[in-house]
Specification:
Elements lengths: L1 H16 L2 E5 L4 E5 L4 E4 L4 E5 L4 E4 L4 E5 L4 E4 L4 E5 L4 E4 L4 E5 L4 E4 L4 E4 L5 H10 L3
Antiparallel strand pairs: 1-2, 1-12, 2-3, 3-4, 4-5, 5-6, 6-7, 7-8, 8-9, 9-10, 10-11, 11-12
């Protein structure tokens, strides 16, 4: 019984350590976001980082932006570039809707056309990856 519990714990730990796949609208893998915020391209090369405090960095750890606790997305100069609402609506700095991040990870543009998938990824992280910063 003890061995079974240890095995179960190992499987759960391994599952949580996996990265979440970022996909295009035709389900092609375009990259990954690891649970620690590391952003990788489809070849697993690190292209950026989202730190636990909301700092967004490129692969060289230079700060390129910030995610605020209220969903505001800022560039490295602290200028607001957009917003991610709790319902997944993504807006630019002028409050115009530019897309949506659905609860199931579907990413849509402002016309509700699916542009990709980010299942299991925080809405703010998906918005940063699809709409605000090009990694």
């Amino acid at each position: 019984m003890k061995k079974l519990m240890i095995l179960g714990s190992m499987i759960l730990s391994f599952g949580f350590a996996h990265s979440q796949t970022i996909q295009s609208s035709n389900y092609g893998t375009t990259g990954y976001i690891k649970t620690d915020g590391t952003i990788q391209n489809k070849s697993y090369a690190t292209v950026g980082h989202i730190k636990s405090d909301g700092t967004i960095q490129n692969s060289s750890y230079a700060t390129i932006g910030y995610i605020k606790s209220d969903g505001t997305i800022q560039n490295s100069s602290y200028s607001t570039v957009g917003y991610v609402k709790k319902d997944g609506t993504v807006q630019n700095s002028s409050y115009s809707t530019i897309g949506y991040i659905k609860d199931d990870g579907t990413v849509q543009n402002s016309s509700y056309s699916t542009i990709g998938y980010a299942k299991g990824v925080k809405k703010e992280w998906a918005a940063v990856t699809f709409f605000f910063f090009k990694f």
